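User: I'm curious whether this sequence folds into something compact or stays loose and floppy. Could you predict its structure so I can see for myself?
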Amino acid sequence: MLLHGTDALTAAARESTAIPGFVAYNLETVQAVVAAAEASGRPVLLQAGSSAFKHAGREALMALALDAARRSTARIGVHLDHSRDLTEITACVEAGYTSVMIDGSHLPFARNVALTRAAVAIAHEAGVWAEAELGALAGDEDVSTGATAARGSMTDPDQAAEFTAATGIDALAVAVGNVHGFTAEPVRLDLDRLAAIRDAVPVPLVLHGASGLPEEQLLGALRRGVAKVNVNAELRRAYLTAVESALPTALPGSDTVATWAAARDAVTATALRITERLATQARPV
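Assistant: Here's the prediction. I'll summarize afterward.
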């Protein structure tokens, strides 16, 4: 069933837990996210977004994700991730997406505000909630490894308060040392900055780039207002590792089905583990 509204998000913030936002690129990853949601009994966000559209096609992937979520017994929101295009925002809202993210983090502050405000107006008119980003994350969300956070691009708490008030967003994605993809050295979040942002804004916070984040860092983020955690690289790695393992047996008979099934099962197991990890209540600070 489709998960509408922000109740699950605000409940997660209140409970110091988080909803996972899982990125899906194709049939198998969509099925895997849905299976993990059904097994966990927890709400999840199925993120079929801008970068994935480049691979699968926007209309095809939108229809696939929405149909899978509607048919499921689990509570699944379908979310547009990292969009920079108001036309794309409109298309996803009209198709039935339950939430959208407008990413103006690459723009100067005033232009980010203007773009975000326009996206929020489109979303809210249709009863869809909107996420935006302030500050910039290093790394490419689809292929990055070894990215390093730049302190100068981190989210400023005072600016975050101004941005939230000016745009009317429902959730704020922050840059506090997190990066897209895996890193050679463990990520160290600026948890003091994160706490200051939480105290400055009235909306739940979102942490992108959570793949491979050390346990104590993740729990520290949940204690400081993060209510949605995006995961992509960890699922991609599980998918490709399973394909690699399945190929020696599959290649002689050209058994593509066994290969796809192995990849889907690996992503399901990874998504389920992460969902349960994020459901563990962290003591607020």
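Summary: DSSP finds eleven helices and eight strands in the chain. Confidence is low (pLDDT under 50) at residues 146-150.
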